[in-house]
Amino acid sequence: MEHRAYAGLVSRLAGLGLDVLITAITVVVVGRGLPEVWRLVAGTPPHWVLTAFDWGANITPAVYFAGSWRLTGQTIGASVFGTVVRLADGSPIGLIRSILRAAIGLLFAPIWFVGTVTVLFDVRRRSLLDMAFGTVVQYLGRPGRPTP
């Protein structure tokens, strides 16, 4: 396996900031924009449709993060900043781990954010979320030193 440099705090937080912006906009579009379009086109939507849009908006961030990590290891923010989430051995993250990593990270968002401070002290630049789920965040296309 080719070793890659572990991503630093600035790259990770910048990518996360972009992802938060993307998911916030998407949540508003799904939860408020789509029902408004329905109203304009077909009148007042039935209650079950509004409930479906609300549920869709609520799960959007988890689906975004879990789906991105599972499919490519990268969210849009990670892609922009050239990082990828992998298991410690370099293999892709499985579906269950991706879902749990996203759900726990989002349910405890302040801990996710504050937990990134450990990136400054850990030899593999892991956050608390990485430590909990056995993941690392690495730069793409930048060879690094092998792990000790």
Whole-number radius of gyration? 18 Å
Mean pLDDT: 92
Low-confidence stretches: none
Strand content: 5-15%
Q: Helix proportion of residues, in percent?
A: 55-70%
Structural shape:
elongated
- For the termini, the CA-CA separation is 14 Å
Q: What is the makeup of the main sheet? A: 3 strands, antiparallel
Secondary-structure map:
Layout: E1 4-6, H1 9-42, H2 47-71, H3 76-80, E2 83-87, H4 95-107, H5 109-114, H6 128-133, E3 135-143
Antiparallel strand pairs: 1-3, 2-3
Helix pairs in contact: 1-2, 2-4
Written overview of the protein:
There is one protein chain. By secondary structure, the chain is mainly α. Helices cover 60% and strands 11% of the residues. It has 6 helices and 3 strands; from the N terminus they run βαααβαααβ. The chain has helices at 9-42, 47-71, 76-80, 95-107, 109-114, 128-133, and strands at residues 4-6, 83-87, 135-143. A 3-stranded antiparallel beta sheet has the order 1-3-2. Helix 1 (9-42) packs antiparallel against helix 2 (47-71) and helix 2 (47-71) packs across helix 4 (95-107).
Short description:
By secondary structure, the chain is mainly alpha-helical. Helices cover 60% and strands 11% of the residues. Strands 1-3-2 form a three-stranded antiparallel β-sheet.
